[in-house]
Amino acid sequence: PIDDAQIELHLQPIVGLPDRRVLHYEVLSRLRSHTGTLMMPAEFLPAARATGRAADIDTRQLSSIVGLCHRIGDRHMDTRLFCNLSGDSLQSDSFRAALTAFARAQKALSQRIVFEIDAATAVTLNTEVAADLRGIEAMGFAFSVDKVSLGDLPRLQGLFRRPGFLKLDAAMLETAEPSVLKTLVRGGTQVIATHVETEQQAASVRRAGVALGQGFLFGKPRPARMDDNAGRRAA
User: Fold this and answer.
1) φ and ψ of 168, to 5 deg
2) Are strands 212-213 and 6-16 parallel, antiparallel or unpaired?
3) Residue 89 above 70 pLDDT?
4) What is the pLDDT of residues 213-232, one digit of tens each?
5) Domain assignment of residue 186, given as a range
6) How many domains does the chain have?
7) How far apart are CA 31 and CA 25, in angstroms?
8) Is there a domain that residue 90 lies in?
């Protein structure tokens, strides 16, 4: 039962290349049932979407992330937490209103929280939703777009007014034209290579000029325990 489960945050490191120092974290939500069972997104998201509870899970996640930011405190001021928002949630007028109110109330955390949406959601945003997200962006929050394909790039141009983050699969970056990435970087966008699982992939994305990486090679998602390990070199 989703209503009785607790949100449990897990963090996967995003590292700088080539030194592999942990710079940021993606926040991944799990649900812990009242019996102690840990439920993965593949287990609870279909039910959440079917019953209209996706927005509720995203709202609960945001509240937990604020607590996590306060636990981090001033020790790691440059560490950002990437918070996933589902496309289902963004289609809800009430959720977007709550998200805007959240951003306004937590403006002091605008340099700590990055809102992340997937490319399939980003390229289909209607005018109203896009305007609401730009309003949140105007408060100082950055956005990240995940699961980006090279074909998505033209449609993503101009979606957000401020440079943010784009996540592209490491396997895709190995074959990407260097000029494409140079254009993104010149515009201020930070590219993150995802699903980096081998040393060969790490070397390849670095040769492509990508300065940030995420994947099992650098660290698997672990329960959130933010301490002075942040900023240390990833395994």
Assistant:
1) -125, 140
2) antiparallel
3) yes
4) 999 999 999 998 744 444 44
5) 14-25+54-223
6) 1
7) 19
8) yes
